[in-house]
Please model this.
Amino acid sequence: MSWTYLCDAAEVAPNSLKLVDANDIRIVVANYGSGFRAIPPICPHMEEPLEESGVIANCVLTCTKHLWAWNLISLDMLGETEKPLKTYEVKEEDGKLLAYITEELTYDFEEEDDMDDDFFSKS
Ligand code: FES
Model:
């Protein structure tokens, strides 16, 4: 794949998130006021949909579920956050937002239930 249209920049208000479909890949566009980020649609903590649980203030994206947070300019992890935010390269051309997509970005989630099952079955 290559540069793929996400949405018009005007469709994403400052300090807001918008879920878009880019060639069947779900991406959340984040407008942090002085720029945009294109990120996977779920929180890397426990898969919360970020277009619902995410809030942006002062260039920081916070998942309101358990308060993991990332600086959207530097992508630094803040507070108790334990996983980095993955991002697609994004650019604005003629008012349109494009992301460079080579593959769908996903997170690894630990199967905590399976670990519990293993623990009890061995005891
Ligand atoms: S699910 Fe997002 S911080 Fe826990």
